[in-house]
Design brief:
2 domains; five-stranded parallel beta sheet; Hypothetical protein af1432
Length: 369
């Protein structure tokens, strides 16, 4: 009988307390496979846990101290040996004995006295099944890795596209500097601080937080539609100019909604981005714009963005004002608790103020370093 290199590297473990039975099985199997023998259940477990691990075990049922069922149970309990196929080899030939063995986790059941051709055929079949299973598992792992790689690549492309669009708005307002990175970080800090609060938990599951943070750079995309003489005006806007400036919220929302319509399928982060763009200038007391929403009628995403955006505007240079000391900005935010901002979000801001200060320092605009 010709032995393939693959078969020669395959290890079988035969287990029987009778030396004559071990000799018979060895003579049947050794011409084709590498064979190790154990004359007790405990010795079988030691060999199975060693190196190299057996590719298949032929296990006697009736043994003293530890029978085949007990050995099989121990093999299945150990993650290192649980997947090794086990064939019971026994003199018991009742149907209920065979069913018991298969229910216990054996892959096959051979009765004694063994017939060499049957033993070799059964062993070969189960080795091939094991190799096929391993190959399928490897292919599944490769497929999962490829899916994960492509999803990551798509996410990177998506994030780059978002930032490209947001940068387009920034080109109209060059003094905003690292505003996008800071506000993203501020929103994440607030979301993480509130995710277990009953008022917010339904809106701030881990995946929802990631979508929220990914969406924030688009909050001011509507500024591309505001004329330069208003957007870049260093002084106070007139009532007419302020009315035009306020339209950037709806302009941004309309642009994102148009992108949603063009998409072939629903894109979750666009829905969040639309809410943020549209409502991040609403105020808790209903005095904001453009819809004059109040309280919980304002989307959670927009409430978080509102505080992050105002804090960043206060602490950074704008065409119409110098930067404010961070302590003064904190006092203003806390003073607007229940008026401009959701009280619980202000409380989260106060708890996490040191994190806000660290982000402000880490991503400070170049002219403030």
């Amino acid at each position: 009988m010709t032995t393939t290199p693959e078969a020669a590297q395959t290890t079988l473990l035969i287990v029987d307390d009778t030396p004559e039975n071990l000799t018979v099985l060895s003579e049947v199997l050794q011409p084709t496979w590498r064979v190790r023998a154990a004359n007790s259940g405990r010795r079988a477990l030691q060999i199975a846990a060693g190196d190299p691990k057996p590719d298949l075990i032929l296990l006697d049922v009736m043994m003293p101290e530890m029978d085949g069922y007990a050995v099989l149970a121990r093999l299945k309990e150990d993650p290192e040996t649980a997947e090794i196929p086990v064939i019971f080899v026994t003199a018991m030939d009742a149907t209920e004995d065979e069913e018991h063995g298969l229910d216990a986790g054996a892959v096959d059941y051979i009765t004694k006295p063994v017939r060499p051709a049957i033993v070799r055929a059964r062993v070969r079949t189960h080795l091939e099944l094991k190799r096929a299973k391993a190959l399928l598992l490897d292919e599944n792992h490769c497929l999962e890795a490829e899916v994960a790689r492509r999803m990551h690549q798509n996410q990177v492309i998506q994030e780059v596209s978002i930032h490209a669009l947001a940068r387009l708005a920034e080109t109209r307002d060059p003094e905003t500097g690292r505003h996008l990175r800071r506000t993203q970080a501020y929103v994440r800090i607030l979301a993480e601080a509130l995710k277990d609060d009953p008022r917010f938990s339904a809106h701030l599951a881990p995946n929802a937080i990631e979508l929220l943070v990914r969406s924030t750079p688009l909050h001011d995309i509507g500024k591309v539609g505001i004329p330069d003489h208003i957007l870049l005006k260093p002084g106070k806007l007139t009532p007419e100019e302020w009315e035009i400036m306020q339209t950037h919220a709806r302009l941004g929302s309309d642009a994102i909604e148009a992108a949603e319509r063009d998409a072939e399928e629903s894109v979750d982060f666009l829905a969040i981005a639309k809410d943020i763009a549209h409502y991040h200038h609403e105020k808790w007391d209903g005095s904001g714009y453009p819809e004059r929403l109040a309280g919980d009628a304002i989307p959670v995403s927009a409430r978080l963005m509102a505080l992050a955006d105002v804090f960043d505007a206060l602490t950074c240079r704008r065409v119409y004002k110098p930067p404010m000391p961070i302590g003064e900005a904190r006092a203003i935010i806390e003073g607007e608790r229940g008026r401009h901002f959701d009280p619980d979000i202000v409380d989260a801001f106060a708890r996490c103020f040191d994190d806000f200060a660290a982000i402000a320092q880490r991503y400070a605009d170049d002219d403030l370093l």
